[in-house]
Structures are given as C-alpha cells and as structure tokens.
Automatic annotation (TrEMBL):
Keywords: Oxidoreductase. InterPro entries: FAD-dep_OxRdtase, FAD/NAD-bd_sf. Gene3D superfamilies: D-Amino Acid Oxidase, subunit A, domain 2 (3.30.9.10), FAD/NAD(P)-binding domain (3.50.50.60). Residues 6-347 form the FAD dependent oxidoreductase domain. The keyword Oxidoreductase applies. It comes from the Bacteria. It comes from Pararoseomonas baculiformis. This is FAD-binding oxidoreductase.
Length: 374
C-alpha cells in the first residue's frame, strides 16, 4: 500500500511529535512514524525541566532560541489543554542553580555575567543570591547552600503528560500516527521523498528526521548529517510528600504529584540503559540532602537511567538538505524545554519550506568533519 501526505515526520518522541503537531495544525497532512519500544527514548526518561539559565554560554543564538521556547510554552500548554483536556503541569516560577561552595558560587557568577554580556541588547535577567536570599525563596535549604543564581525564565512540566498531550492533539487535528513503524531506508529527490515503514510506502514533498539517536543513521539517506551520540543521565525519585519546593533547581524539583526528582548526572556509557552506577546515585543523593536536609527522610521509590541525544558541542542541530530541498533534521538534548519552539517556531519554518538565515548556526555544517565529508 502507498500513501501520499504533505509531510513525513520520523520519530514520535518529544521532538518529532511537537513538530508533527505544529505541521498538522497549520494544515499540512502529516504522518508520524515511530520505531516503537525497542528504540532508545529520551522522551520517556527525562527530568522535566523547562530550563533557560544554563543554556547558551558562548552560543547566544541558543540562549535566544531557548528563551523563545520558554516564552512559547504557556501558549502551547493552553492550546494542548483546550484541545485535549490534558494538562502538561507547566509551572514557570523562575528557577535556582544552587552552589554548595564559595568556589562554585564564584564560577557561577562569572558564567551568568558572561551570559548577560553575550546576550547584548536581547538582555538576560538574573540575580546572584546569598544563602539567606535563597532561604527566603526556598524554605528548608541546608546550611551547605552558599548561594545560587536565579533567573525568572525557568520552570518545569510533566514530560509524560506533555508527550501524551502532543500525541493526542496531533491525532485529533487529523494527523496519522503509526507506531511500530521503524524507517530503515528511503528515497530522496528535491521535494519528493519516500520511506517504507509499518508495511506501507509513504510519499511526501517534506520529510523531517526527528528520530533522536536514530537520526545518526537516517540523516545520510536524505543528504543530511546528524552526528549525535548518547550521553547517559540517571534520575532518582522519592515517595510523594506535601508541597515543599516552590520552584525547581537545576538538579532537584518537586512534581505536581508530590515526588521529589533528583537528576542531572552525565556519563559516557554507550547505549547502556540497563545498568546504573551506584557511586553516581550516591553523589546525586548526597548533594540533594546537603541542599535540602529533609530529603533524607524520604524513601527513594524509583531510579532509572536514560540517554540524552548529544551533538559534539551539546547544541541542537536543525538543518535542511542542500541537495534535497524539503528534507530537515531536528535533534536536541532539551526536548521538554524546546517543545514550545518546535511546535510554534520551527514547524512554521518547515511549513514555509525552508529554515531562515538565523537558523544557520544550528546547521550540522558547523562541524568540520561534516563540512569535509560534504
Ligand atoms: C536523564 C535525562 C534527563 C533529561 N532532562 C531534561 C530536562 O530536564 N529538560 C529537557 O528539556 N530535556 C531533558 N532531557 C532531554 C530530553 O529528554 C530529550 O531532548 C528529548 O526527549 C529528545 O527527544 P527526541 O524526540 O529527539 O528523542 P527520543 O525521545 O529518543 O525519541 C526518538 C524517537 O524516534 C524513534 N525512532 C528512532 N529511530 C527510528 C527510526 N529509524 N524510524 C522510526 N522511528 C525511530 C524512537 O522510537 C523514539 O520514539 C533529558 C534527557 C535525559 C536522558
């Protein structure tokens, strides 16, 4: 069987689904193809921050993109809730990056000052807070917290509710979602693409590769490059408790249901998500208890590891094929944060048929080995 649509999106994680929803609601008939449970899926194992203050040091275009996404998030959350009745749990009260030594605080202050300089006229609002200023905003902090950086832009959401809301909204807008539909091959010509998936041949004048780590193998089939690799992160989750954390921090947040999540480790572990590293879990738990001593009273009820989708410089890759206009890639390691941008800013660019010049710094051609291979 063969189907023709306006767009094919490969990858039904947070990135692909946000883009597919953005395309479908703007009138492009879209098929969303997803490999299924055998794939590595960052979207189902992440921490849930909608986070701005650590994004874009030395890369102000990434800071602007992230800020644009954080600003687009409330509209997206309202739209999804109105269309599907599913709340994404978005809460953007600002956020803290806690520092547990004078040295950490000094380095953090230097980083924030540099981010503000690099932001130029775009601006970057932040404050460095002392222990007592942190305590005013965050009751129950430990004596080890020397201070923190604060920005008004940060927040968090439920990543699983977001994923479900995006999928539901996509289908209700008329989109076709096909699970267990891995893409292994395809044909490419300008504005003319086809792939075999789920026992069917799909044709479209646009294709968006948003298959997370799967993009590395898919992109070359369509004249693109996606040099992404896995970076493992581990997460600990406590039993539920009463609301105790009024705002998220970079590594600790309380969910709408009351659990405290502790996260943000980074490890090179290949594609291994079966094992966890006790030393890393211990270090994460220790830092959490130094930050908020009351966490020691809570039982850990779940722990897991999952794989981030990382480019060599840690920045997103958004690209369009020079040889095959109509083919795009999208990869990032902050698919929750960037959901607003993907649905409301990137999708309209893809509808328009090309990425504008301001997106050029996100191209994979910024990597020398990609330029050399072209
Ligand atoms: C521990 C951890 C903590 C994180 N914390 C945060 C956070 O706090 N905030 C934040 O913004 N981000 C966070 N992230 C990152 C975020 O989870 C990812 O950026 C996001 O989930 C990436 O989404 P994706 O759709 O690109 O990839 P994935 O979720 O991996 O989805 C890719 C999809 O593509 C499909 N696929 C793969 N290959 C193929 C193929 N050949 N054919 C068809 N389908 C295919 C798979 O089935 C999968 O569903 C975290 C990640 C980790 C691991």
């Amino acid at each position: 069987m063969s189907r023709t649509q306006d767009a094919i999106v490969v990858g039904g994680g947070l990135v692909g689904t946000a883009i597919a929803y953005g395309l479908q609601k703007r009138g492009l008939s879209t098929v969303l193809l997803d490999e299924g449970d055998v794939a590595h899926r960052a979207s189902r194992g992440n921490f849930g921050l909608v986070w701005v203050q650590t994004k874009g040091l030395g890369a102000p275009h990434y800071q602007r993109w992230t800020r644009g996404s954080a600003a687009a998030w409330p509209g997206l959350a309202e739209d999804l809730s109105a269309r599907t009745g599913i709340g994404t749990g978005l809460h953007q009260p600002g956020g803290l990056h806690l520092c547990l030594s004078e040295d950490e605080l000094e380095r953090r202050a230097a980083t924030m000052a540099r981010m503000q300089r690099e932001a130029g006229n775009f601006g970057f609002e932040y404050r460095m807070l002392t222990h007592s200023e942190v305590a005013e905003r965050m009751p129950g902090i430990g004596r080890s917290v020397v201070g923190a950086s604060w920005t008004p832009y940060d927040g968090h959401a439920s990543p699983l509710h977001l994923l479900r809301a995006l999928h539901t909204a996509f289908r209700e807008a008329g989109g076709l979602y096909l699970p267990n539909a891995g893409v292994a091959e395809g044909t490419a010509a300008p504005h003319d693409f086809s792939v075999e998936a789920g026992g069917q041949r799909h044709h479209a004048p646009r294709i968006v590769l948003a298959a997370g780590l799967g993009n590395a193998a898919l992109a070359p089939l369509f004249g693109l490059a996606a040099p992404v690799r896995p970076e493992r992160g581990q997460i600990l989750v406590t039993e539920r408790t009463r609301p105790l954390l009024p705002m998220p921090t970079t590594t600790i947040r309380q969910t709408g249901e009351g659990s405290v999540m502790i996260g943000d480790s980074k490890e090179e572990a290949g594609f291994d998500t079966q094992t966890q590293t006790p030393e890393i879990m211990r270090a994460m738990a220790r830092r959490a208890v130094l930050s908020f001593p009351w966490i020691a009273e809570l039982n850990i009820v779940r722990a897991w590891s999952a794989l981030r989708v990382m480019a060599p410089d840690g920045l997103p890759i958004y690209d369009q094929a020079e040889r095959f206009p109509g083919a795009f890639t999208a990869n990032c390691h902050s698919g929750v944060t960037l959901a607003g941008a993907h649905a409301e800013i990137l999708a309209p660019m893809i509808v328009a048929g090309e990425l504008p010049a301001e997106m050029a710094p996100f191209s994979a051609r910024r990597f020398e080995h990609v330029r050399n291979a072209a």
